[in-house]
Amino acid sequence: MTADPRLAKLSLNQRTTRRWSVREAVDGCVRAGIPAIGLWREPVAEIGVPAAARIVADAGLRVSSLCRGGFLTADDAGARAEALADNRRAV
Prior knowledge:
Elements: E1 11-13, H1 22-32, E2 36-40, H2 41-47, H3 49-59, E3 62-67, H4 77-90
Parallel strand pairs: 1-2, 2-3
């Protein structure tokens, strides 16, 4: 994908472009010569995994990560249980 070998291990974390859709973030990577993207679950869920995978593959990029899990610091048991359930679904 990238002609510059110094960028071979570079990846854009989609959170840094949080207002961009998956397609916009992928297009930004292509324009900048960044060969990989770390996607976030919420934007991927908005368009579906198959569509996101197709957008990334068609652009010739790699997915370096799918973020995010954690956020287990809720004060009440119900919110902690939901956070754990959300993380389990992600895995």
